[in-house]
Amino acid sequence: xxxxxxxxxxxxxxxxxxxxxxxxxxxxxxxxxxxxxxxxxxxxxxxxxxxxxxxxxxxxxxxxxxxxxxxxxxxx
Length: 76
Known about the structure:
This protein is α+β, with helices and mostly antiparallel strands. It is 18% helix and 42% strand. The protein has one helix at residues 29-42; strands spanning 3-11, 17-24, 58-67, 71-75. The longest helix has 14 residues, at 29-42. It is a single-pass membrane protein.
């Protein structure tokens, strides 16, 4: 099973995930859920560095690509 989807991940200053939103579905629910689950399982992320302390959130938008051979990569 393979396909592409676009996720927006919002992080708090302490590295906790505030939210994960599917911006563009792969059309396959199992892939969409796998990407969201991967983000949640990877948290918490590193806290914001001192030079980013003025921000209360960081939103990262990436395209996730599930490719044949049970592999995955991301890109801008």
